[in-house]
Every structure is written in structure tokens, then in C-alpha cells.
Amino acid sequence: MKEVVRIAAGQGFWGDDLDAPRRQVEGGPIDYLMLDYLAEVTMSILQKQKERDPSLGYARDFVGAMESVLPAVLERGVKVIANAGGVNPRACAEAVRAASAKRAGKDKLRIGVVTGDDLLARLDELMAQGHVLANMETGEPLSTVRDKVLSANAYIGSSPIVEALKGGANVVVTGRSTDTALTMAPLRHEFGWGAESWDQLAAGIVAGHIIECGAQCSGGNCLYDWRSIPDLANVGYPLVEARADGSFVVTKHPKTGGRVSVPTITEQLVYEMGDPHSYITPDVIADFTTIRLVQDGQDRVLVSGITGRPPTDKLKVSVAYRAGFKAVGTLVYAWPDALDKAKLADRVLRARLDRLSLGFDRVLSEFVGANATHGPLAGERSDAPEVQLRLGARGPDRAAVERFTREIAPLVLNEPPSVTGFAGGRPKVEEIVAYWPALIDKSIVKTKVDIIA
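Predicted structure:
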């Protein structure tokens, strides 16, 4: 058993720095590279791609990332774990295998494919069996939007990833696993943590939560003393150095920018956190109030003391469904009286829309530069040198939203003066994809692991 296991984060979301995975494997010694691609909206985007082309439905950036780190995987034994599979993990794995075929010798690249999280094809069967998949926020049954559902994926835990690693995989591709499982699984595998080693499992979850958003914990998007954070153009992505007792150090490679400190780690810990006593995952419930952070040298934070307890008997299900159409357009008004001009333009547009009776669910106006970010708290600064009027409409009828897009441009000549920022043509009408969180019994979700060599 290794004394220390090093896991580096190379992606915090689909669209993150394309070069980060390569920098992580080349910047210093690591054992695992963790790449997190998925968010709730990402699953619906991938499902729509798969509808258009059955060979798609995964984060295609991952293929290029694998090509860039392949020497480290084949020659140094670095293992890669990613949830880039989206709604089509097998196609993702096949694409990686095809891209690496020229460089990977026989039996060198073994890709573990984790499936079973995708419940879309089973929804009608599950609902007929009495699984109402009620919205966790409203209590409504899924049947109210069943005909609009795009994707439905259960958040699975670390166990199938551990199974793939035990099966000899040096690359593991999953669908909708929890972000934290991508880091916790290799620790379970390397240290042999049991399924009821609650404190160690909770430590693995916390480690995963800290690095799941990439450089957000190593100086990026950091509020505390943000002016003093060095060289963000070369920000170092984080890595954890973990031990079998559950303690670990968060750090980054030397000669990289950013900062790893108690404040940067603290900010990430409270990100997307509900009850700090109960951070719920499929594997364990972690108590964030027990976390101890100590600065352990420059760009090193020691994390310890974490406790956990048994998980619930449910898994969260992320459902995405079609919810109408929207369009957003902007006009920029210049000083003097920029805010007053923008407000008059807003009133004029709304009067025109009222006459048209287009049946929108909502028309939204924001005055960027005056109150868009902080709303009423901003006090609507009347002295703003410029204000962007951002106008949006949403509704069930695409044609109505299309008509809304035609009503913005006339404001340039017909209404208040000093428009400076209208460009790019008529706003684009987009389909709205809404989020439906639900719970389902763990016994319903059966994961499967295949090794592709």
C-alpha cells in the first residue's frame, strides 16, 4: 500500500482550460488525474447531441485531453478518472481508444466504462411501479412533465469506479457520477477503505469536493485578498496528497500561479454546501463542521479531523426537461442619464409587447451597470456612465419569442438617444431546458462495469 496517493484535478467543468490536464501530468509526480466535466445542464446538452447523432453524447474535449496525457498514462502509470461519458460513456471510451490506438501498445490502455446511471429509457417502467420521482423543491410528480423529459440520470457513487480500478483499468469513464466520487474512488482503491469506513470515506468526499472545481480552490474565482493572488495567467490546478488515515494536503505544482491557503480552501468548501453537518453523497454523509484546516507551508493546506456517517437509502436523480423558449437581447445607453434612458426604453418595449399579447410566461429587464448583479441592494446608481439594458422573454410559443426578438432593434432609432452597443444582429431564440431534482431508491439503480482493452 502506498504511503501517499497523489490525485490531481485537471478539469472543473466542460469548457475548462484545455491545457490543464497536460500541465498536471507534466508539472510533477502524480498517481491519478481526475477530470470533472459534468453539471446538471451539461447532461441535457449531451442528450440533445445524442438525439442528433447516436455516436455523440459525451464531452468530446476529453478525447483531446487523453491524447495530451497519454505518455504519462502509458509510460509513468498515471491513471485517469473522468465523468466525461455524459449520456454515452461507451461511445466516449471507444473514441478515446480510437484516438490513442496508434500510440498505445497491446494491453497498455485499459478503459473501464461505468454505466447504469442513465434512467431515461426506464422512466415509464419506474413510474408504473410507483416511483413518482417527485420534484424535491415543489413535490410535483414527474408525470406532470414526462412528455418533455430530455434526460434522467442518477448520481452514482464511487463503488463502480473502484471495481473498474480493481479490474485493471488505467482510464475510467463514467456517466453521471458524483463529482466527489472521482477523487474518493482511487483513495478507496489504494488504501482499501471498507464500505463502512465512514470517517475515511468522508475524508475522500471532502478531498473530492475541494478539487472538483479545478483552480477555484487554488486562487481562481477567490474573493479573499484577490488582488494579491499571483500569476493567475499561469494558475496552478490543485492536487491532493492523501494518507490512509484520511488526512490529506491540498497543494499545487511548483512554479505555477495562484495560491493554496486556508482562505482559498475555505471558500471552496462552502461552495454548493447545504447543511454543513450533512453533506450527502451515495457513499457517505460527511460532517463539514469537523474539518480542520492548517497552513502546512507555502501553497500547502493540511486537512484532517473529518468524520462521516452512513448514507441514506436514496440516490438523487437529475432530470432535464423542455420548458419552452427564450431570447435575450441588449442595448447599451451612454451618459448622460444612461439609467433613465434605459428605463424609458424598457417601458416602451413592454408597452409594445402588451399590445401584441404574445402570451409570455415572463419578460425580464436588467440594467447592467446599475442593478443587475445586486438588484435592489445596488440602489440603482443614477450616475452610471453607461448602462446595458438586458431584455429577455420566455414562453411556450417559439413564434411569439421570435416576434419579441424583432421588437428590440427598432428602439435604436425610435426611442431614447445614445444607444452605443447594439450589435450582432437579432437575438437568437433558444430552447429552455429546466432542471427537475428527484430521489429514487438505491436498489433501483444497477451499475455495470466493462473493461475495454
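Summary: Residues 373 and 407 are 25 Å apart (CA to CA).
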